[in-house]
Structure formats: structure tokens, C-alpha cells
């Protein structure tokens, strides 16, 4: 069930991540972090402005990271402030954490000892990401120096994870047969390859996928007060997917993995500073590439059309209804809309729409540029086509 925030900008504006949920018996959905006010940080600095640091990082899951560091800073005695700057996964924005003065100890005139924590749960940083970080020491308004970048990992360290890789997918798993894990990896890579080839997309960034074998172990990785029905997430902007797939359940591989990979690949293909994919298009494409779970969709949409209860596509651009029955109908309507476009305009028509969405023009212009008709005409043509699907 899809609830989406605003697209982050061209250079990954400072946007706090919003948890992306999936109902246990419905496809997981894709959320984009809503934009928030950016915290100004300094631009990358030259080697002359850097200092050496040694940092030991301990994962304190599910809260965050504990960091103990030794900073070799010339004239450390004049340090007025110490901060931590970090980037999570593919996010290009540096987040700023103020280090409490009580966590900073002056060892001597050239050395500072730091013992502090970073609450990643509070910052809504999902586990399963690499974290790049550096220290900043501020002496006064005109004088600040930075440490050389360091890296660590933020993940659910309660489990013993195994990792396997393909060309564009890193899969992490535990509690699964190795052969079954290979099938998950192959499904993800095949989906990436198929989408790129069919719709003439540029090569996607590597996806990181973390698979839990059961709901109980997955629940412990979620933030407090999360829904009991959450069974996975696709973290748009971080190239990260988490999911519950029981060992041996090939049906869940086919239903979940292609769907979530579609969200990630299409996000990368259409990312721009101005717009985000309309939900009906994004979810319609994702449900089309998954295996299973859509057999009742056409009948559901036909019945809604006959009773005058079928949505206009324009009403499904920003979000889907919250009521489960209406949300399911929204998924079904989106699936049939993509089926109509594919049937009428072919895969080239969908490829043209994806390319147009990537330019950031308004949705009306996308349809005009790609299909040669207005959005209102597309909506009407689709509804007319749906009525032709009524069984005789």
C-alpha cells in the first residue's frame, strides 16, 4: 500500500527517510523521503585542511552507533566545537551531529579523545547501509579542520548474515538454504536486467537486499510502534530493500522481489529535481513485473467500472487510499492502466513515458510527449478499454 513523500532533489537534498512498509498479504510499497530543511555543512576540503583520526565503531542495534575516536588535531587546545558529519548509503547529503562537550576530552595540545553516540533510529536511517563519516573541529567562525573520511556499516547485528553478489545486487540473508538464497539473488538480477533492456534504461546502481526468514526476527528490526503487518520495505534513494521471505517459498520470491526491484530501478531511471513518478504508474509497473497476486485485478476493476466506482488515474498520482479495500482497487486499477498502455502503445510507449518522466516535466506533458494524447484522453481511453473486458 503506497504512501509517498516528495522526491529528493538533483543532489540528494537533505531528506529524512520515511519507512516504507509492505502489508503481509499485499505488495510492499515505495516511499521517497519527504524534503526537510537542510543543515548547512562545509564543502569538501583540501588535504591541507585535514587531520588524522582513528575511530572504533560499535553497532548498538537498533538504536545506532557508538564511536570512540582519537583526533590528532594541531592546536587541539583551541577547539571550541567537535561535530560528526556522515552520509548514509547512496545519499549524497552529509548530516551533521553535534558532539556534546562532555564527550570531548583534551588529551594534550595535539590530541582529542571522543566518546559519543549517533542515534540512527531517531534519524530514520534504515539498517543495511554503509555509513561514511568524518570529524570536524571548529576553533572559531573562520577556522575549522576535517578528518579524513572513514567508513563503517549500520546493520542488524543480532543475526549472522551471509552475503552473495551478482553484477548489480548484493544479497544478505540468514536462516535460508543457500540454494534458495541463490534463487532470490537471480530473481533480483534478472529483474534489473529485464527492466534495463526492455525500457532502454541506463545501468542501475547496485541494490542491497536484506532477507529475513520469518516475521518474528524481522519485527525486531523495525522502529517502535510499527505495524504488526509490515513485512518488508523498499527504501527509495538508498538502493535498499528489506523483506521477509520464508525459506523455500518461491511464490514469495516471485511476488516480492521483482516488485521491489522495479521501484528501485524506475526511481533511478526517472530521478530528477522536480517530480516523482505518479503512484499509479510506479505501482502499476511493479505489479506487472511481479509473479502472482494479480489474478483478480481485472475482474475487480471491471466491476468497479460497471458500478461507476472506478478511480480516475489523476486521483492516484500522489497516493493510494488508506482503506484496505480501496487501496487494493487502486493497485488493480494501476495494473490495468499499465496493461492498457502496453496493449495499445507497446513496450516502446512505456519506455517513452519513463524517459519523459525523467525530464521532470508535468505529468500532463509526459503523456502528451510519450503517447501523443492528453492525460484526460488517456484516462478516458483506459476506462473505455476496461469496459470492453466485461465477460460476454
Please supply descriptive tags for the structure shown above:
single chain; 392 residues; alpha+beta; Glutaredoxin; Immunoglobulin-like; Neutral Protease, domain 2; 3 domains; 9-stranded mixed β-sheet; 6-stranded mixed β-sheet; 8 helices; 32% helix; elongated; disordered N terminus
Write the layout of secondary structure elements.
Elements: E1 30-31, E2 50-60, E3 64-72, E4 81-88, E5 95-98, E6 104-108, E7 111-119, E8 129-140, E9 143-147, E10 150-154, E11 162-165, E12 169-173, H1 178-198, E13 207-212, H2 215-219, E14 232-235, E15 240-244, H3 250-270, H4 279-289, H5 297-306, H6 324-357, H7 363-371, H8 375-387
Parallel strand pairs: 1-14, 2-9, 12-13, 13-15
Antiparallel strand pairs: 2-3, 3-7, 4-5, 4-8, 6-7, 8-9, 8-10, 11-12, 14-15
* Structural class based on helices, strands and sheet pairing: alpha+beta
Number of strands: 15
Sequence of secondary-structure elements: EEEEEEEEEEEEHEHEEHHHHHH
CATH architecture of the largest domain: 3-Layer(aba) Sandwich
State the distance separating the first and last CA atoms: 32 Å
- Count helical runs: 8
Largest sheet, in brief, is: 9 strands, mixed
Strand coverage percent = 15-25%
- Which regions contain 5 or more consecutive residues with pLDDT less than 50? 1-48
Q: Radius of gyration, Cα only, in angstroms?
A: 24 Å
**Percent range for helical residues?**
25-40%
What is the arithmetic mean of pLDDT?
87
The top-level CATH class of the largest domain is: Alpha Beta
CATH homologous superfamily of the largest domain, by name? Collagenase ColT, N-terminal domain
The general outline is elongated
**Number of spatially distinct domains:** 3
Q: Say what the CATH topology of the largest domain is.
A: Glutaredoxin
Amino acid at each position: 500500500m503506497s504512501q509517498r513523500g516528495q522526491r529528493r532533489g538533483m543532489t540528494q537534498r537533505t531528506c529524512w527517510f520515511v519507512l516504507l512498509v509492505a502489508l503481509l498479504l499485499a505488495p510492499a510499497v515505495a516511499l521517497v523521503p519527504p524534503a526537510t530543511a537542510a543543515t548547512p555543512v562545509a564543502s569538501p576540503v583540501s588535504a591541507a585542511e585535514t587531520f588524522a583520526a582513528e575511530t572504533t565503531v560499535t553497532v548498538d542495534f537498533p538504536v545506532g552507533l557508538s564511536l570512540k575516536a582519537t583526533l590528532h588535531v594541531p592546536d587541539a587546545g583551541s577547539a571550541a566545537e567537535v561535530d560528526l558529519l556522515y552520509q548514509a548509503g547512496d545519499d549524497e547529503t552529509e548530516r551533521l551531529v553535534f558532539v556534546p562537550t562532555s564527550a570531548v576530552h583534551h588529551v594534550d595540545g595535539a590530541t582529542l579523545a571522543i566518546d559519543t553516540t549517533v542515534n540512527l533510529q531517531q534519524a530514520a536511517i534504515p539498517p543495511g547501509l554503509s555509513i561514511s563519516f568524518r570529524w570536524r573541529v571548529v576553533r572559531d567562525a573562520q577556522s575549522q579542520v576535517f578528518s579524513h573520511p572513514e567508513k563503517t556499516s549500520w546493520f542488524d547485528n543480532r543475526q549472522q548474515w551471509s552475503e552473495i553478489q551478482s553484477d548489480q545486487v548484493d544479497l544478505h540473508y540468514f536462516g535460508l538454504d543457500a540454494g534458495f538464497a541463490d534463487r532470490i539473488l537471480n530473481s533480483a538480477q534478472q529483474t534489473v536486467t529485464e527492466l534495463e533492456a526492455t525500457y532502454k534504461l541506463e545501468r542501475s546502481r547496485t541494490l542491497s537486499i536484506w532477507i529475513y526468514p520469518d516475521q518474528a526476527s524481522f519485527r525486531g528490526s523495525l522502529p517502535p510502534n510499527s505495524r504488526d503487518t509490515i513485512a518488508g520495505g523498499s527504501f527509495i534513494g538508498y538502493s535498499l530493500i528489506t523483506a521477509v521471505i520464508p525459506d523455500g517459498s518461491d511464490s514469495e520470491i516471485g511476488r516480492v522481489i521483482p516488485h521491489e526491484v522495479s521501484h528501485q530501478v524506475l526511481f533511478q531511471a526517472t530521478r530528477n529535481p522536480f517530480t516523482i513518478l505518479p503512484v499509479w504508474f510506479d505501482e502499476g509497473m511493479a505489479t506487472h513485473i511481479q509473479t502472482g497476486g494479480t489474478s483478480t485485478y481485472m475482474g475487480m476493476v471491471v466491476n468497479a467500472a460497471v458500478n461507476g466506482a472506478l478511480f480516475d488515474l489523476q486521483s492516484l498520482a500522489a497516493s493510494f487510499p488508506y482503506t484496505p479495500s480501496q487501496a487494493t482497487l487502486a493497485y488493480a486499477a494501476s495494473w490495468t492502466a499499465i496493461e492498457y498502455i502496453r496493449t495499445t502503445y507497446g513496450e516502446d510507449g512505456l519506455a517513452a513515458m519513463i524517459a519523459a518522466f525523467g525530464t521532470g516535466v508535468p505529468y500532463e506533458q509526459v503523456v502528451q510527449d510519450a503517447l501523443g494524447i492528453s492525460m484526460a484522453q488517456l484516462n478516458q481511453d483506459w476506462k473505455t478499454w476496461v469496459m470492453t473486458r466485461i465477460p460476454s
